Amino acid sequence: MEYSDSFRFIQVYLGLFRFIQVYSGLFRFI
User: Fold this and answer.
1) CA 20 to chain centre
2) Which H or E run contains 8?
3) Which of 2, 6, 14, 20 matches a 20 to 30 Å C-alpha distance to 29?
4) What's the pLDDT at 30?
5) What highest taxon heads this organism's lineage (predicted)?
6) What's the confidence (pLDDT) of residue 17?
7) What is the distance between the alpha carbons of residues 17 and 6, in angstroms, rounded to a whole number?
8) For 6-11, which contacts have Cβ atoms below 8 Å and span 24 or more sequence positions?
């Protein structure tokens, strides 16, 4: 496994986590 692949995987994981946080925040706002 290359370092770039690992970094990209972490970036995607953080992106999904942030998306879930925003989505739950909007749901709570409603």
Assistant:
1) 7
2) helix 3-29
3) 14
4) 66
5) Bacteria
6) 97
7) 17
8) none
